[in-house]
Amino acid sequence: MEPDVSIETSCMIRIAVLPVGTVPASVLRDYFSMFLRHHTIPLAAISSFYTEHQKSPFAQQPWDAGSIRFKFLLGGAPPSPWEDFQSNRKILAVIGICHCPSTPDLDSAVEQFAAACKSYSSALVQRCFAFCPCDSQLEDGGKKEDVLRLFPPADHQTLDIHLQTMMQEIAASLLMDFEKWVLKAESAGTILKTPLDSQASLSSEEVLKAKKRRLGRAQKTIGDYCLLAGSPVDASAHYTTALELARLTGDFFWFAGALEGSVCALLMDRVSHIDAVLEDEVKYQYNNVILHYRKSFIQDNAQRVSPLSFELEATLKLARFLCSSYLCRRNLSKEVVELLTSAADGGKSLIDVNDRLVLFVEIARLFGTIGYQRKAAFFSRQVAQLYLQQDNKFAATSAMQVLAMTTKAYRVQSKASMPDPPHTKKQTGPSHTDSGKMHHHLVVSLFESQWSTLQMVVLREILLSAVRAGDPLAAWSAAARLLRQYYPLITPPGQNGLASALNNSAERLPSGTRSADPALPFVRLHSFPLHPSQMDIIKRSPTKEDWWAGSAPSGPFIYTPFSKGEPNDTSKQELVWIVGEPVQVLVELANPCGFDLRVDSIYLTVHSGSFDAFPISVDLPPNSSKVITLSGIPTSVGPITIPGCTVHCFGVITEHHFKDVDNLLLGAAQGLVLSDPFRCCGSAKLRNISVPSISVVPPLPLLVSHVLGGDGAIMLYEGEIRDIWVSLSNAGTAPVEQAHISLSGKNQDSIISIPYETLKSVLPLKPGAEVILPLTLKAWQLGPMDFEIGGGRAAASGSTGRQFKDASVPTLLIHYAGPSTDSGDVTSATGSTLPPGRRLVLPLQVCVLPGMSLIKARLLSMEIPAHIGKAHPKPMHEDDPTTETVEESERKMEKRLVKIDPYRGSWGLRFLELELSNPTDVVFEIGVSVQLDGTDDNNLSTNQDGSTEYGYPKTRIDRDYSARVLVPLEHFKLPVLDDSFFMRDFCNEGSTSSSRSSSFSEKNTKAELNASIKSLISRIKVRWQSGRNSSGELNIKDAVHTALQTSVMDVLLPDPLTFGFRLTRDNSSPQQGSDSKDSVLANDMTPMEVLVRNNTKEMIKMSLGISCRDVAGENCIEGEKSTVLWAGVLNGITMEVPPLQESKHTFSLYFLVPGEYTLVAAAVIEDANDVLRARAKTDSPDEPIYCRGPPFHVRVLGTA
């Protein structure tokens, strides 16, 4: 049997790849990987090397879509006795790999290659590829072009192209040789035999039958060569003939081979159209193949040679085909399992051990492909047992490697092959969310008691193979896992035997060897003999002024030896130790086995290196436990994590993690583990103690806080603003020299005024001193969950409001620190760093009641039609300041809120609609104001930053009523289009590469877009007032952000070009009444001009065009039915518009028919810069930037 067989194997040409001379292993692997990329050669690519000496027997050769497939065998393969039966088993080409720098003598390399080729008598093509030759080798190698092919030194891509050309030449040579063989076989015939024929009796009847079968076998072989030549249609024809002849002569073995080849030809012919019908056809035909291989079995030959291997190979080929279809059709798994089970049963009759080995390997691989990991592991064990039957070191090593692959399925894998669990990873800060919790799914996946016997067998086999292979570390690991996990099922003599195996393996290991798999004893955390404190401690960074930024607190609960008189509560998750002072940790050891256990050393494991642990030795009698004290000294300030203990036992150093034992004990409590090792040793039940993270700090100041006016909850409506006062007192023994206020928790933006300067002005705050801090609060918006939680708790307690405040109130964080240890230098001679700081957590007790609510916000647009007239007003940002009266100022104020100019052009006015609701029992007055940057106007409020705030008339909303407010957004549009909006992300890039700048640009453009939306929202204020003392501001951030998400660029940015039309006729022109002062007469030449304004800060060169359409939208200027004549130029007008200025173009129109017309100006910008491309939302530098102006209406009156 052969490994890795499939239906497509029949169409693959086998090529032996041999190293010639001295070739380093890494270089050989690199060259061989290049060959593997050229396993398929299209027929269309070999036409330049192919020569048709006579009419090709491959009449249906698919030159356009066909291909020739190669199968490269590194090192070659011995000849097969079945080469006549299956031509694809022949080595048809030999390629030698010569590395010229390692083999300078090319003559000897050619002789060595020629000698190696003699072992492959069936090879039709022989080539020796010499890589990286020097100049002298290039000259010498040119004389040996018949066999030697030189690859001059080049980059990897060039070598790959050169190799592809050589492989195309080999494919063409093989194709021509196939043609010669087929023509010879068809004309003269050939004698084809198999080991079945050679073993048969040579009676006269058998000789006569062999002559009749010769023709059918020849047709089958010709079909094989057609497949190898990449012509599946020709192969199918010859296979059909061979099937008929084999059926007539009863040659079942060759009938099965021909049928197998016909299925391969069918798949090759329809390789891109595989469907369910084809899959059913393949299954049917391969079942016939298996049946006819079974029919060819001859009882007399059963002990010498049997077709059983071909029957099993056919079964594996069908199973592999169904596995590839299984990825798309999951219902095929049952058929695959049946085929593999049948193959496994048939493997019992195989004579050759190597055949059984290959069979079980393939069955295991296929079971793994369809996800049957435990079946795959079972057959992998069969492979390992076959290896163990061979009494040599290499076979034992192979068995050990195969068994190592099964350990994951059997849940006995070594920790070295497992990903690091979260509790073993080094962490800069502790994670308290999962501390003290046992994950049930982790326990179930690691411990399965019903697999105990099988798991023990697997570990014993690994131990045996490791001992035979001479791998003491693998043997020690297997014995450690076996003893630690299954000690209750092992008798005392067996336990002693495993202990001896551990000691014997350790003797063969160097001193200090570490293993990832712990043995004995079992170690669990018992307690920490320290006392708690009530303040968070933050590490200070001496290199940063804001030392609190980015630092995580040590947790809500702290242990410290300074606290006295408090009970020992080991359930808390944080410890504080002092540098240079000894600390102690209590751990419990258990030895549940029947022998004395000597622990050479055990000490606390600290990965950070800031802790000196003191090792001790322990003796544990059989079936006993002991609580011991492990000690050490912290050596530096910072966090310390103790995941477990380091144990030196049985001659090997291992790490024992507390978390593993906690999971083990939980599994024992739930019946998932065989037993509890501590209960077996008589130890009392101990609740789980999670491993804390430890911080090392010096003495620090202590701040105590309270709210003036009482500690009760403050009742506020949503959005209400109120002042409160907080008192801070230093109750510590050291002064507070540094302090900073920050926010945490939910609704941080509800604190709108924080007294940073007040706190800094009283520093240093001496012991016993007090400071009062004023705060301004703004009540936040309540969410649906707040109402649900509040309603549920209110029903239980009978109160409202306070029940849901704790989940959503903001928290005031005050980070503070005392004086430095060394005033002149940050680090002293002893190595001590700045003392850490502390954090005061002050939750603000606020109860928020439902108030004025924003139901939704949406963006509305309005189009203003434009009319052509004589007037062309100035742009809206060019207002001349003049002296105004109060009435004019009010009109100007209204004009700034909504600007409508019907002669500027048809542009979209955008409004932000806010729908407000009052669900309370009080009345609210709503005021909307907009903050704009610009000059100050009369009667308008001016902010401290120089911006002007425009207010709307107030809206009154009674209880249980709603109202809508419109906010025009036109005055937010920027007057000039420049790179300040698009290119801000490039200002700090420096000389980075273009690809990196592009990636940053994509991220920062989105960030700038969100920043622009936030900036726009921050300038819109919706304020309310209820009564005299209650006032606030409505939160509209999220709703407005959603409404503006897709249209913010259109709101903020102007078009690069704006277009306008106006009439330029004299005032003496005849008109028809006052209503027609902006109208045009028919049959009259009307002079006009188009005005183009450049809204950017750079010169724009463009090509301008003007079109005119009637009410039906038809072009009135061009075409056979044009109704408008013109004078001047309307298309292809080249213009250059200076920055922030206008340019004019004059023309005249002559309207033949009265009616309504529309003029539209459009321009194509030439040499657009990055700003214009960004505004047009295009990234291609070759894509033209097209700007189209708004339509302008022209009313043409008839001449009466």
From TrEMBL:
<feature type="region of interest" description="Disordered">
    <location>
        <begin position="870"/>
        <end position="893"/>
    </location>
</feature>
<feature type="domain" description="Trs120/TRAPPC9 N-terminal">
    <location>
        <begin position="9"/>
        <end position="196"/>
    </location>
</feature>
<dbReference type="InterPro" id="IPR013935">
    <property type="entry name" value="Trs120_TRAPPC9"/>
</dbReference>
<protein>
    <recommendedName>
        <fullName>Trafficking protein particle complex II-specific subunit 120 homolog</fullName>
    </recommendedName>
</protein>
<dbReference type="GO" id="GO:0005802">
    <property type="term" value="C:trans-Golgi network"/>
</dbReference>
<feature type="domain" description="Trs120/TRAPPC9 first Ig-like">
    <location>
        <begin position="551"/>
        <end position="652"/>
    </location>
</feature>
<feature type="domain" description="Trs120/TRAPPC9 fourth Ig-like">
    <location>
        <begin position="1058"/>
        <end position="1196"/>
    </location>
</feature>
<dbReference type="Pfam" id="PF08626">
    <property type="entry name" value="TRAPPC9-Trs120"/>
</dbReference>
<dbReference type="Pfam" id="PF26251">
    <property type="entry name" value="TPR_TRAPPC9-Trs120"/>
</dbReference>
<dbReference type="InterPro" id="IPR058567">
    <property type="entry name" value="Ig_TRAPPC9_Trs120_3rd"/>
</dbReference>
<dbReference type="Pfam" id="PF26282">
    <property type="entry name" value="Ig_TRAPPC9-Trs120_3rd"/>
</dbReference>
<dbReference type="InterPro" id="IPR058563">
    <property type="entry name" value="Trs120_TRAPPC9_N"/>
</dbReference>
<keyword id="KW-0333">Golgi apparatus</keyword>
<dbReference type="InterPro" id="IPR058565">
    <property type="entry name" value="Ig_TRAPPC9_Trs120_1st"/>
</dbReference>
<feature type="domain" description="Trs120/TRAPPC9 TPR region">
    <location>
        <begin position="339"/>
        <end position="504"/>
    </location>
</feature>
<dbReference type="InterPro" id="IPR058564">
    <property type="entry name" value="TPR_TRAPPC9_Trs120"/>
</dbReference>
<feature type="domain" description="Trs120/TRAPPC9 third Ig-like">
    <location>
        <begin position="880"/>
        <end position="1052"/>
    </location>
</feature>
<feature type="domain" description="Trs120/TRAPPC9 N-terminal">
    <location>
        <begin position="202"/>
        <end position="274"/>
    </location>
</feature>
<dbReference type="Pfam" id="PF26254">
    <property type="entry name" value="Ig_TRAPPC9-Trs120_1st"/>
</dbReference>
<dbReference type="InterPro" id="IPR058568">
    <property type="entry name" value="Ig_TRAPPC9_Trs120_4th"/>
</dbReference>
<dbReference type="Pfam" id="PF26280">
    <property type="entry name" value="Ig_TRAPPC9-Trs120_2nd"/>
</dbReference>
<feature type="region of interest" description="Disordered">
    <location>
        <begin position="414"/>
        <end position="436"/>
    </location>
</feature>
<dbReference type="Pfam" id="PF26283">
    <property type="entry name" value="Ig_TRAPPC9-Trs120_4th"/>
</dbReference>
